[in-house]
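Sample entry (177 residues):
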Amino acid sequence: MDGLKLLGAMIIYMLPAFILGFGGYALFMLLDFSMAFSVSSASSSNPFPLALIGSIFGMFIGMAIMMLGIVLAVVIIIILPPALGNMLVKGKFEAAFHFQEWWPVLKANLGGFILAVMLVMGLFYLMYMLAIVLYATIILCFLLPFAFALILFISGATGSSVYSIAYRDGIQKLAGR
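Predicted structure, serialized as tokens:
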């Protein structure tokens, strides 16, 4: 049940970043196709129609929205461990959204949480790059699903441990130890 609670809280927290990221991507791609259609339907007398300028401008807006979603995701990834830690400590799903309870823990050990996130992301990236080596041959390519399952397991186990330590350190710093 704790795993389902964690998943639910993560989805709720990440939803705004997903909406911005995917919405910006959809806008970008829609206007990219619109631009391709404008160019193909342009007459030889007017090779650069006004719709093309609007499509280019809209594509930049879509890209900016997508980048905003990525920045928001990075911020959420940093604040998510103390929120989830608070939920696990209290044993209640809604405790993940009690900002007044976990925000002081984040502030007390912000560097620890950032370091924990960087460590887990770096480990994930390193293992991912090692798994990409499996693409080198047809035989090893069949091992890829197992490699990705192992990567997710190791990243999750390491992340849980490192985030727990960062949460504990934040609580101890708040207590004045």
